[in-house]
Design a protein that fits this description.
Blueprint: H1 2-12, H2 25-34, E1 52-57, E2 74-78, E3 85-86, E4 91-93, E5 102-103, E6 108-109, E7 114-118, E8 143-146, E9 151-155, E10 178-181, E11 184-186, E12 193-194, E13 201-210, E14 218-226, E15 228-233, E16 236-241, E17 264-267, E18 278-287, E19 296-305, E20 319-325, E21 331-338, E22 345-347, E23 357-359, E24 372-373, E25 379-384, E26 389-390, E27 395-402, E28 407-411, E29 422-423, E30 428-429, E31 434-442, E32 445-446, E33 451-457, E34 465-469, H3 472-480, E35 491-498, E36 504-515, E37 529-533, E38 558-562, H4 576-586, E39 594-601, E40 604-613, H5 617-624, E41 629-633, E42 637-640, H6 644-655, H7 661-668, H8 673-685, E43 696-701, E44 708-711, H9 736-742, H10 750-758, H11 762-776, H12 782-807, H13 812-841, E45 853-856, E46 862-867, E47 873-878, E48 885-889, E49 899-907, E50 913-919, E51 924-929, E52 940-943, H14 944-947, E53 958-962, E54 965-971, E55 977-982, E56 986-990, E57 1002-1005, E58 1009-1015, E59 1021-1027, H15 1028-1032, E60 1039-1042, E61 1048-1057, E62 1060-1067, H16 1081-1084, E63 1099-1104, E64 1110-1115, ...
Parallel strand pairs: 11-12, 26-33, 34-39, 48-73
Antiparallel strand pairs: 1-2, 1-22, 2-7, 3-6, 4-5, 4-20, 8-19, 9-10, 9-13, 11-19, 13-18, 14-17, 14-19, 15-16, 15-18, 20-21, 22-23, 23-24, 25-27, 27-30, 28-29, 28-31, 31-32, 31-33, 34-35, 35-36, 36-37, 37-38, 38-40, 39-40, 41-42, 41-43, 43-44, 45-46, 46-47, 47-48, 49-50, 50-51, 51-52, 53-54, ...
Helix pairs in contact: 4-12, 11-13, 12-13
């Protein structure tokens, strides 16, 4: 063996050296390299039998990928001993004069183990950012400490702080916790442990045991969460997002929102030393923003990624020397190597570690077990004639040129050739389209790269062709694993591009992934979208060919092969998305270019595909110039950069009044106003209704570039009708502003919030309308839209015909879809102009309710504030026991204007009474009277809107008192809701401009939040919510929810009962303007969904079911129709809500929610009271628990209904004890 090694050393390597006498080993080596080469003794390792070099790959082309997804070269270190070894102190060099060139980190190699070093030159021992992105993760956990879906102990509830103190510690007694699998949550119907609707916090703990030290300290926490979390490892906080400071408890809430959908990885390497031998505990608090949130998610895994080592120098592919240096400076091992062939490693066989040789199949991280070659095998394959389009009968020859005896083996089904594949012996005659994959073999090992070739024999498509060849099993993995994402879902393949004339212009390896959302579902026959990734690991890193004509970039590193999932055969036109992107580009926006190809996969046609650019950082750098970009897409998934700028923009939008020009100017420094405006206009005009909560991209150049927005996946535009909609009206007669304001666009997505905030600025409203008119006479003119429709229709018509035939579809359905697209394009501009004019000219109207204000002070005195027929303000005040009443004029200075609408009133703990009303000129006025003032004193007057420089009101105010502080809301003259509150001084802030109120707004409060309820301009019940914790911290990040299944009239009201937030409203006979479009197909397919079949003009309660639809229930279906707006009163001592309303016959009816059911009574009939013409006001006395309602009867008198175990009434305008004007 020694003789064999010495005779081949010049061709191969070599080998190991030890410290000698005299000159040290490095000096000897340096001297030898200066003169004659040194030939160390074969088979000798380090003096102490320690670590050795085991395998080298200096030309990695298609082998293992590093943590950045690159095919870096590598070396392998082996520990042949019987004890683990720490690498601290070992060094690696390719220059004996620089022994300390690269030092190993103190990683551990177990006995008999292997350690990989990437020879990338990056000089890095930490994880690449890519390894922490699950959407592009290149490496799985090496060791999983907590599996996804593992059982956890969890605790729910509130107000129980004592039982959770120290709950994150290892020794905490969690025996009271329940047990359930992750993930935890509600509302998305994908949670393994479903939590109750309205959960704001869940505390979970998971024990795990470490029996031996981990191989790597690259500890990673993987979470998918909505809306926040705080994670603790053995009692120490290690990661948190949207969590409060300090240890969370069951009353904690998330400080901001975050949508689930994609897991994120958090690097805990800095905390790896918290792990201990034996028992460990990971404790996580999952947090929600508020109890009315529609969903919550918490999914967790914990693991360790492989130790990552990147040396600071590269291997020379033409050959060189490599030395492993011991901590004491001696040579542990040395190898000399010559030029390597791609993907053939130099290594020691496990059975004979002294013998170096070449392996055709490298084995990084494992023992070298394959046949060993004395020198590299050079082998290449070619096809004759070249792949192209040919007539039937063409003969194909496979040629090879090799340095060793080889066989040629090939396949025709896309699979990679193996030693058992068909042996090529003679030319092959082709009668039809065919695809080959061929390689040479030495025995059972492949010696050459796999070469792929497609021959378009016989009839061929009119369009250019993309031909993909890949292992059939790999294609099934890509096509059928609908939930697979990221690099782990990518499979190697080979791409050939043929022009429409049949010439092959591109041939390269690449990686294939599935692309899209809902379109991922389906079987093998389903036409799906894919993504191509051009990497050097597969072939060329970029394709420098104009795959998409008209796109002026230097090449492509990725492509999207769009199947147009919603717009595909047999229900679609196939061209909607491309047309919309083209029109948006005409408007001056950046848009992903696209072209048409027929896609072949393993020589089988998958049909006509729209091949487009992939929108990512590379895309923006190619079009806008080099630099770093924040790129974000649907689900707020970051594709590159940081989310910090996006979150800052969201907070800025939520907390800023853009009617102020200075604030709007700041916004224009963050957002490209012209770009965003064109983006909104094209989507609304062309009715892309699978947006804006879905199918969007946004980007900005770091650090201070402006955000721009891009159209994507707009298949629901241009009059598309989903098969689940049946004959639903979805065309030019659908109002896109109703959709955006009160319909299916609803949500807290930033795009919608941004638009609705911007139109609060009068100047922007004018600009927006000008831009609408500009684009409707240009890019959005019917003739321009038709130009694109005709161009794309003509391009694909012939090959769509073949696709329909192959799939057994009736092509007339495609022609019908094209006609619908054309008709929509011809009509939509004029409709869009009409809807735009109507939306921006809308002004809300105050309610016509004749309702008095009713309050109670701390002593139990009740006050009824009302307006006389002549507009004068008067106050009825009771004694503490209610036995006597005074009727007093509210005395104000003569300059105080009279009220123009409903009154609101409140009393503070001091006894001071306040009346709020809208004056005849629209200003909000406050009248106040101290409890110490005489009854006939003048009330103090404040013009609140003038004092605070706020817009005048168009509708009447509403008030609630929390912690002795009043909170007032009203709607201004631009139909914007605004909030005023007093906490020692008056403050103000606008509510979000979404959705627009049709009339009055009503504010109420719960222990957790403020709520503002109203009916939108399109007749949809809506409620805005602000957490009281956020308000206490100076935040005004209101969020809203709409209940859009039924049209409302009058004033909706909200309340909490049985752990649910409920909205009560009166059902209208029909939609007042136009029904907002809402896609309910998914909801209708869910168990429990029911269409409302109850009567109209009745009260209905709606609540969030935690599913895709709201629950609905009629209140008092057997009673007469509702004539006015209801009022809600709450008995805090009994935790009971009462709903009172005026029926069509004038009676006051009361509904009581008891254990989920409404119990109905008629207090008017029971008390023998006269019918009402005005709506009731009510309260429950905090002192006596008695319930009161006051209303105006038909004769104009004020009547009070009282329940003290039975119903009674009195005429407050005629009681004997009445004293007028205090006399």
């Amino acid at each position: 063996m020694k003789h064999l090694l010495l005779t081949t050393i010049a061709a191969v390597l070599l080998v190991a050296g030890t410290a000698g006498h005299g000159a040290g080993p490095l000096e000897q080596l340096a001297q030898a390299e200066g003169g004659d080469s040194v030939r160390p003794e074969s088979g000798v390792a380090s003096a102490n039998g320690g670590l050795r070099l085991n395998e080298i790959l200096a030309s990695n082309r298609a082998g293992r990928l590093d943590d950045e997804g690159q095919t870096s070269d590598w070396i392998e270190i082996h520990n042949p001993g019987t004890a683990p070894v720490r690498l601290g102190g070992y060094r690696l060099t390719n220059d004996p004069n620089v022994p300390d060139k690269w030092a190993f980190p103190n990683n551990r190699i177990p006995a008999g183990g292997y350690h990989l070093v990437w020879m990338s030159g990056l000089d890095r021992v930490s994880l690449a950012p890519q390894a922490l992105r699950t959407s592009a993760a290149t490496i799985p956990f090496e060791t999983t400490l907590i599996e996804p879906g593992a059982d956890w102990r969890y605790l729910l509830g509130s107000g129980n702080r004592q039982s959770t103190i120290g709950w994150t510690a290892v020794g905490f007694d969690d025996s009271a916790f329940a047990v359930g699998p992750a993930g935890f949550g509600y509302g998305d119907e994908d949670d393994a442990t479903e939590l109750p609707f309205g959960t704001t916090a869940v505390l979970i703990r998971r024990e795990f045991t470490l029996k031996e030290p981990l191989m790597s300290e690259s500890l990673v926490l993987q979470l998918d969460y909505d809306d926040g979390f705080a994670a603790y490892l053995n009692g120490t906080r290690v990661a948190a997002v949207n969590a409060p400071a300090g240890e969370p408890n069951l009353d904690s809430v998330a400080r901001d929102s975050h949508e689930a959908g994609f897991a994120e990885r958090f690097d805990l390497s800095a905390h790896a030393r918290l792990l201990r031998h034996g028992k460990n505990v990971l404790a996580v608090a999952g947090l929600n923003t508020h109890r009315e949130s529609s969903d919550m998610t918490l999914r967790i895994a914990l693991g360790v990624l492989p130790a990552v080592c990147h040396a600071n120098f590269r291997l020379k592919k033409e050959g060189g020397t490599l030395l492993l240096i011991e901590p004491d400076g001696s040579i542990s091992d040395r190898v000399e190597y010559q030029r390597q062939e791609a993907d053939q490693s130099l290594g020691r066989p496990a059975s004979s570690p002294a013998d170096w040789g070449y392996f055709l199949t490298p084995t990084p991280g494992a023992a070298n077990a394959g046949p060993q070659q004395p020198k590299p095998v050079k082998s290449h394959i070619s096809f004759d004639p070249l792949p192209s389009a040919y007539d039937s009968g063409v003969e194909v020859r496979i040629n090879q040129k090799s340095s060793a005896a080889v066989d040629i083996r090939f396949t025709n089904d896309g699979s990679e050739p193996v030693a058992s594949s068909e042996l090529y012996q003679e030319p092959i005659q082709l009668a039809d389209r065919s695809m080959f994959r061929a390689a040479t073999f030495v025995g059972k090992e492949r010696a050459s790269s796999i070469v792929s070739a497609t021959y378009l024999v016989g009839s061929r498509p009119v369009l250019p062709v993309l031909s993909i060849s890949m292992n059939p099993a790999d294609f099934l993995d890509v096509h059928l694993q609908s939930n697979a994402t990221g690099h782990d879902s990518e499979r190697p393949a080979f791409l050939e591009l043929f022009t429409s004339a049949g010439d092959r212009t591109v041939a390269t390896g690449f990686g294939l992934r599935l692309h899209g959302g809902a379109g991922r579902r389906g079987d093998l026959k389903t036409k799906k979208s894919y993504r191509t990734y051009f990497r050097k690991a597969y072939g060329e890193g970029r394709v420098d060919y104009p795959i998409i004509p008209g796109v002026e970039i230097e090449g492509y590193d990725k492509l999207v092969l769009r199947a147009n999932s919603n717009d595909r055969a047999p229900q679609g036109a196939n061209i909607r998305d491309q047309v919309i992107r083209d029109v948006h580009s005409d408007m001056g926006a950046l848009a992903a270019g696209g072209s048409w190809y027929v896609l072949l996969i393993n020589s089988t046609s998958r049909g006509v595909y729209n091949v487009t650019e992939r929108i990512d950082e590379e895309f923006f750098a190619s079009h806008l110039g080099p630099g770093e970009y924040d790129v974000i897409k649907t689900g707020e998934t970051m594709l590159s950069g940081s989310k910090e700028g996006w979150n800052d923009l969201r907070q800025f939008i939520r907390s800023t009044d853009f009617s102020d020009e200075a604030n709007f100017e700041q916004l224009s420094q963050r957002v490209d106003i012209e770009d965003f405006t064109s983006y909104i206009i094209v989507n609304l005009c062309l009715q892309n209704f699978d947006w804006p909560s879905n199918n969007w991209y946004a980007a900005r150049q770091v650090p201070d570039g402006k955000w721009i927005f891009l159209c994507w996946d707009s298949e629901w535009g241009l009059g598309y009708r989903h098969p689940g909609l049946g004959d639903a009206p979805y065309g030019t007669d659908v109002d896109p502003y109703a959709f955006m304001d009160s319909g299916g666009a609803s949500g807290n997505g930033l795009i919608r919030l941004l638009f609705l905030a911007m139109i609060d600025n009068p100047g922007y409203c004018n600009y927006y309308q000008q831009q609408v008119r500009k684009h409707l006479s240009g890019p959005l003119a019917p003739q321009n839209i038709m130009r694109h429709i005709n161009r794309h229709r003509d391009a694909i018509e012939s090959d769509i015909d073949l696709e329909y035939q192959a799939r057994g579809y009736d092509k007339q359905r495609w022609y019908q879809q094209i006609k619908e697209v054309e008709l929509f394009a011809q009509q939509c501009p004029k409709f869009f102009q009409k809807y735009t004019d109507e939306y921006f000219s809308f002004r809300c109207s105050p309610s016509a309710d004749d309702r008095v204000a009713l309050i109670e002070d701390a002593d139990g005195r009740r006050y009824v504030i009302y307006r006389t027929a002549k507009g004068q303000l008067r106050e009825l005040s009771s004694s503490a026991d209610g036995s006597t009443w005074n009727n007093t004029a509210i005395r104000v200075p003569g300059t105080v204007p009279p009220p123009a609408g409903q009154l609101s009133a409140y009393a503070l703990a001091s006894g001071k009474r306040h009346v709020i009303y809208r004056g005849t000129s629209g200003h909000l006025h406050e009248l106040s009277l101290s409890a110490k003032d005489p009854a006939n004193s003048h009330w103090h007057h404040t013009n609140l809107t003038s004092l605070l420089a706020q817009p005048i009101a168009r509708c009447d105010p509403s008030v609630t008192v929390v912690d002795n502080a009043p909170h007032i809301v009203y709607v201004d003259h631009t139909s914007r809701a605004r909030e005023l509150w007093f906490d020692g001084e008056w403050r103000h802030h606008p509510l979000p401009f979404a959705p627009r109120p049709a009339s009055n707004v009503v504010i109420s409060s719960t222990p957790a939040a403020f709520h503002v309820s109203y009916r939108t301009m399109f007749g949809v019940p809506c409620e805005q919510t602000l957490s009281r914790e956020a308000a206490a911290n100076g935040q005004r990040n209101w969020s809203h929810r709409i209940f859009h299944r039924l049209p409302a009239q009058g004033q909706p009201l909200g309340f909490n009962a049985d752990g649910k937030r409920r909205i009560v409203f009166r059902v209208a006979e029909k939609w007042f303007v136009r029904e907002p479009f809402v896609f309910r197909w998914h909801a209708r397919r869910q168990p429990g969904y029911r269409e409302y079949e109850g009567p109209r003009n009745r009260l209905v309660q709606a609540w969030n079911t935690g599913k895709r639809y709201h629950g609905l229930e009629t209140i008092g279906a057997s009673l007469p129709p509702v004539a006015g707006n209801p009022c809600l009163v709450y008995d805090a001592r009994g935790n009971q809500h009462y709903l009172a309303y005026r029926g069509g016959e004038g009676h006051i009816h009361e509904a009581t929610l008891n254990e989920g059911y409404w119990q109905l009574t008629n207090p008017t009939a029971l008390a023998g009271a006269p019918p009402a013409t005005g709506d009731p006001s009510g309260l429950v006395s905090t002192l006596t628990g008695l319930r009161y309602y006051v209303y105006r009867c038909r004769e104009g008198d004020l009547h009070e209904l009282c329940f003290d175990g039975s119903w009674s009434h009195r005429n407050l305008s005629a009681v004997k004890e009445l004293k007028a004007d205090g006399k």
